[in-house]
Design a protein that fits this description.
seven-stranded mixed beta sheet, four-stranded antiparallel beta sheet, mainly beta, 128 residues
Amino acid sequence: EVQLQASGGGLVQAGGSLRLSCAASGFNLDEYVLGWFRQAPGKEREALSSISPYDGSTVYADSVKGRFTISRDSGANILYLQMNSLKPEDTAVYYCAADLTGRTWPNDQESRRSYDQWGQGTQVTVSS
């Protein structure tokens, strides 16, 4: 019974902030590369960020760099995505994921990493 449960999405005004949470059960988030993704209507899924299990180093997509921050709370076994300065184009369903088999960091391109475990997604809507 390994699973990820994303939560924290909602309606916000442009310029506002949200913090998404991804609660893990059945495994320890600190042991695996973790990532956040989003998918807007009519668009392909976009990799936003990933975090290393070794030293906590992170990578970000250009579209969110400087505005979003990925982090984890090892004690609570929760992955977070802090989203600041939100824009209408950030509107999407947001997903968290864990790479349960990968053992390398960093990959040549983290946005192409394959993930084994996915959360159900949480809707983020940013109004203008």
